[in-house]
TrEMBL record:
Pfam families: UDG (PF03167)
Full protein name: Type-5 uracil-DNA glycosylase
Superkingdom in the source lineage: Bacteria
PANTHER family: TYPE-5 URACIL-DNA GLYCOSYLASE (PTHR33693)
Family assignment from sequence similarity: Belongs to the uracil-DNA glycosylase (UDG) superfamily. Type 5 (UDGb) family.
Record keywords: 4Fe-4S, DNA damage, DNA repair, Hydrolase, Iron, Iron-sulfur, Metal-binding
Every Uracil-DNA glycosylase-like domain range: 62-240
Organism: Streptomyces pyxinae
Keyword DNA repair set for record: yes
Xref: InterPro entries: UDG_Type-4/5, UdgB-like, Uracil-DNA_glycosylase-like, Uracil-DNA_glycosylase-like_sf
High-level lineage: Bacteria, Bacillati, Actinomycetota, Actinomycetes, Kitasatosporales
């Protein structure tokens, strides 16, 4: 077995990463979940007619944004023909169109569209990541895949800890996956764990007496939510704006 295929690969490599860029690079080599590896690579080979001629990334997708972000956005997993194609979180799909338009409205992104890596998109004080870094079949990672991938998110939180002051979690799956990673990253998560809800807000104290963290819940920017009106642009910008202000980012 190649070391990147061992279930312990994320644990070892995340713990040993001394910076966010190093962690991001190590994420891209992970092959610890066989089902996800097979799926992401098959999607990359087969593609989709709309993206004919596009060379898919078809690897784990690392977080995107500055390594000293004050606000962290946590989704679910890369989309098969979105991040799995472009190699950047929430880039090249409808969910990303909604998210980055909201960040641009708030002055937290320099452009409203995310087309491909290298398109010039920059985020101000915000970083985007997910608890599962590979595109899963039907957008549904298994609990085991979620747990295997958790060290990457815990490591990212550990490295962001000097600057991060707020987290927005998109969707119930991300909420359930993120709370244990926050506990591993150095914040005290209450028992029973707080329930997810749009507009939920929980204050987590640091276990070492350092700065605390505000965690916000928001419906996921999936097409099912945005097309049906369950999540409107106004609802999204309200949550993101409140979180950004809490993090000290002064959105417009």
């Amino acid at each position: 077995m190649d070391e990147t295929e061992h279930p312990g690969f994320p644990v070892r490599e995340a713990a040993g990463a001394g910076s966010v860029p190093v962690l991001d690079e190590r994420v891209t080599h992970c092959r610890a979940c066989p089902r996800l590896v097979e799926w992401r690579e098959r999607v990359g080979r087969e593609g989709r007619r709309a993206y004919a001629g596009w060379e898919y990334w078809a690897r784990p997708v690392p977080g995107f944004g500055p390594p000293d972000a004050a606000l962290l956005l946590v989704g679910l997993a890369p989309a098969a023909h979105g991040g799995n194609r472009t190699g950047r979180m929430f880039t090249g799909d409808r969910s990303g169109d909604v998210l980055f338009a909201a960040l641009h409205t708030l002055g937290l992104a320099n452009r409203a569209e995310a087309v491909r890596a290298g398109d010039g998109l920059r985020l101000r004080g915000v970083r985007v990541t997910s608890p599962v870094h590979c595109a899963p079949p039907e957008n549904k990672p298994t609990p085991g895949e979620r747990d295997t991938c958790r060290p990457w998110l815990a490591g990212e939180l550990r490295l962001l800890r000097p600057t991060v002051r707020a987290v927005v979690v998109l969707g119930a799956f991300g909420w359930q996956a993120t709370l244990p990673a926050l506990a591993a990253g150095g914040w005290a998560v209450p028992r029973p764990r707080p329930a997810f809800g749009h507009g939920a807000r929980v204050r987590l104290p640091a276990t070492d007496g350092g700065p605390g963290l505000d965690v916000f819940g928001c419906y996921h920017v999936s097409q099912r939510n945005t097309f049906t009106g369950r999540l409107t642009p106004e609802m999204l910008t309200d949550v993101l704006g409140e979180a950004a202000r809490t993090a000290g980012l002064d959105p417009r």
